[in-house]
């Protein structure tokens, strides 16, 4: 896809009209942490996105990534983002020897679409080049079961720590979460109304790198930077969508704005080598997998996710599927699991892609395409 075509596609979907604020549930945020002088979201470069593409980054048969091409893509992207000539200098803009760095991966799309091993490995390598000891680097996700399946360990120095908050999505163990940092909201009359932040984030990390994927999502419409860092760092978040209704519209941005998560998440590297255009956030089969072969770099999660909305929607249109903006009750199939998982003209819930704009109104980044600076690089 050439630059002009890509930009034309990005302009195809108009800004969504804000929802009636009476639909937004009341929440109570409890945190003992103060924001940084310059919070990590939207960070040093609000509204700035660098997109790096490389047709040769994936093997045409196996779809396995080429580590050398990934390294070049990341070098070009980080240098362009920071305005520097050397990758080492670019990474030192953000990280130094005193930092304890978390890398928030996304494993939910296993086996086909997860944060790529080569991207994670190169991120670790560059952190170490910036002086961060391997033992001060944490690759993290909410569920140990997912981390085990993806298995990053063979690709990383053994001193790098791989950490999860709980074994699986059963909400039976709260020991990995901080009881003093949480968001409280009664969404559907659930018994437990609190979502707590991971202890690793509140008690240990000083900086976080967010590495999400390009994915469709049945509740939010698309899931990228915002949802990966928000729902991937708190407990008890599946309660936000139930039946045909979803409170992801407001809850994604609200969680992402809680300190210290907001201030410590200083870099966004979206893995768009592979993507899921329907049935996300999972990818149990390759039926709905596609291959954008791109990476996106920035500090502003809203700006990157604003572009993501159009990428997912244009792919769905090309496949003859309904838009992620479709809110028609006729498309809902909450009582037919087979249909909602296999039919791209069926919605699980009334989708809430407006969560990206809502996050911008919380100050997390730039939503208006006219104010987003997009630089495209082809390797």
Characterise this structure:
With 379 residues, the protein is of the alpha/beta class. It has one domain (3-14, 28-89, 115-129, 175-270, 285-378). Helices cover 28% and strands 21% of the residues. The chain has helices spanning 3-10, 67-82, 87-92, 117-129, 144-150, 199-204, 225-231, 248-256, 261-264, 301-318, 337-342, 355-361, and strands at 28-30, 48-53, 101-104, 137-143, 161-166, 177-184, 194-198, 207-210, 213-217, 221-223, 241-242, 245-246, 265-276, 289-290, 294-298, 373-378. The strands form 3 sheets. Strands 2, 3, 4, 5, 8, 9, 10, 13, 14, 15 and 16 form an 11-stranded mixed sheet that branches. Strand 11 and strand 12 (245-246) form a beta hairpin. Helix 7 (225-231) packs across helix 8 and helix 8 (248-256) crosses helix 12 (355-361). The radius of gyration is 19 Å and the shape is globular. It starts with a helix and ends with a strand. The relative contact order is 0.20. Residues 1-18 have low confidence and may be disordered.
């Amino acid at each position: 896809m050439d630059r002009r075509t890509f930009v034309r596609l990005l302009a195809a979907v108009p800004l969504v009209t804000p929802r009636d604020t009476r639909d937004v549930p009341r929440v109570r945020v409890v945190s003992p942490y103060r924001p940084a002088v310059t919070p990590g979201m939207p960070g040093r470069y609000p509204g700035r996105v660098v997109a790096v593409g490389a047709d040769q980054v994936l093997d045409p048969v196996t779809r396995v990534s080429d580590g050398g091409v990934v390294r070049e893509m990341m070098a070009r992207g980080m240098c362009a983002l920071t305005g520097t000539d050397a990758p080492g200098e670019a990474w030192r803009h953000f990280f130094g020897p005193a930092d304890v760095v978390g890398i928030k991966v996304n494993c939910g799309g296993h086996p086909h679409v997860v944060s790529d091993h080569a991207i994670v490995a190169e991120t670790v390598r560059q952190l170490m080049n910036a002086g961060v000891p391997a033992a001060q680097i944490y690759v993290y996700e909410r569920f140990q079961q997912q981390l085990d399946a993806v298995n990053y360990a063979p690709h990383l120095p053994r001193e790098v720590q791989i950490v999860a908050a709980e074994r699986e999505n059963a909400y039976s163990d709260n020991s990995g979460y901080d009881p003093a940092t949480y968001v409280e909201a009664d969404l559907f009359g659930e018994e437990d109304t609190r979502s707590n932040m991971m202890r690793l984030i509140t008690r240990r990390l000083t900086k976080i790198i967010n590495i999400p994927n390009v994915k469709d999502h049945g509740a939010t419409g698309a899931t990228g930077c915002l949802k990966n860092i928000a729902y991937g760092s708190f407990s008890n978040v599946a309660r936000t969508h139930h039946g045909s209704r979803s409170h992801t519209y407001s809850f994604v941005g609200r969680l992402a704005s809680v300190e210290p998560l907001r201030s410590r998440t200083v870099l966004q590297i979206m893995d768009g080598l592979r993507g899921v255009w329907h049935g996300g956030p999972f990818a149990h089969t390759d039926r709905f997998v596609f291959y954008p072969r791109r990476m996106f770099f920035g500090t502003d999660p809203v700006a990157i996710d604003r572009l993501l909305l159009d990428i997912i929607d244009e792919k769905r249109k090309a496949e003859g599927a309904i838009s992620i903006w479709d809110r028609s009750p006729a498309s809902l199939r909450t009582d037919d699991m087979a249909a909602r998982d296999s039919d791209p003209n069926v919605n699980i819930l009334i989708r809430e892609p407006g969560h990206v704009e809502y996050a911008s109104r919380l100050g997390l980044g730039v939503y208006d395409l006219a104010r987003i600076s997009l630089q495209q690089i082809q390797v």
